[in-house]
Amino acid sequence: MGSRYELFQPLLTESGLSRFALSLQQRTASGPLSGIVHSFLQITATRPTLYPMIPDGTQAVFIGPNSVHLRGAQTKTLELPIPEPGKYFGIQFFPGTLRYFFQEDISGITDRFVDGNYWPCRQFAQLQQPIFMKASFAERAEECEKWLLERVQPSATQAFDRALSEVYQSLGAVNVNVLAEKVGLSRRHLNRLFQRYIGLSTKTFSQTVRVQAACRALFKDPSSSLKTAADLGFFDQAHLLREYKKSLLLSPRSLFTRFRSDLYNR
User: Fold this and answer.
1) Which helix (H) or strand (E) holds 25?
2) How many Å apart are CA 69 and CA 60, to the nearest integer?
3) Which of 32, 91, 116, 184 has a CA-to-CA distance to 122 between 20 and 30 Å?
4) pLDDT digit string, tens, across residues 96-154
5) Cα–Cα distance list, 259 to 15, 84, 124, 216 (Å)
6) From CA 178, how far away is CA 161, in angstroms rounded?
7) Domains with residue ranges and CATH for the chain
8) SS3 helix, strand, coil % of the chain, rounded to 5?
9) pLDDT-derived band of residue 214, with 50, 70 and 90 as boundaries?
10) Can you tell me the distance from the alpha carbon of 201 to that of 79, in angstroms, rounded to the nearest whole number?
């Protein structure tokens, strides 16, 4: 499962939330859901705004007062419009773990937000009313966790889980042929599993994990790109920056000026 994967979203930092006039409540899942659901979260918006998300390989369900949306895995930065002030509840799943609730191929929602009429959302749309009947975030998270526990199903894909673990441990710096051999699958079959359960190829997902690691490091110190490139196995600084811009559409400095007040004022 996904419990070894450290996700990073610059919006959900203190500076990022402040920049977009948002506040956050968040808690991790417990018990049997701890390696399936990364967290339950609630965003409070004081005005219409955007909710920018960088690629991290996850899927998420967003539940608003009047809508339910599912976000697929991303290959590039996406922005979810928040149309009006209010509280918005969310469930973030670790990569590939929606298979514990349904077995459909989710590659069709890569780089997309789909609403409650789309097939994966149909059961999640049932959550909207009970979630918004609860007054507090804690009660909503508890209600959601109970609902998910009643619907979680076994998923016998141990080779896929081992492959995910290898990608996480290497921070995405893994050769796909070596990975397939290590978990006892052909490269083609392994790629089919990644496409079906995450919506990304094995190579693209590994690159996403590596760019995530770079984002965490560069958010702390935007001047450290040379060291970060070496630490993460990029050929050189230029290679890191090319992969970064390919996924995030901006340079590290251009992106993080959106989220860090100390850079914004320089």
Assistant:
1) strand 22-27
2) 8
3) 32
4) 999 999 888 999 999 998 988 787 678 888 899 999 999 999 999 999 999 999 999 88
5) 6, 21, 31, 13
6) 16
7) 10-149 (2.60.120), 158-264 (1.10.10.60)
8) 45, 20, 35
9) confident
10) 22
Tokens found for residue 153 = 């199903």
| Bridge partners (DSSP) listed for residue 81 | 50
Summarize pLDDT for 219-260 with one digit per residue, the tens.
Answer: 877 666 656 666 666 666 777 777 777 777 777 777 777 787
> Side chain identity at 182, as an amino acid letter?
K
Token pair of 250 as six digits? 């901006």
Two tokens, residue 70: 């599912």
| Cα separation of the two ends of the chain | 42
In three-state secondary structure terms, 223 is coil
Q: What confidence score (pLDDT) does residue 265 get?
A: 46
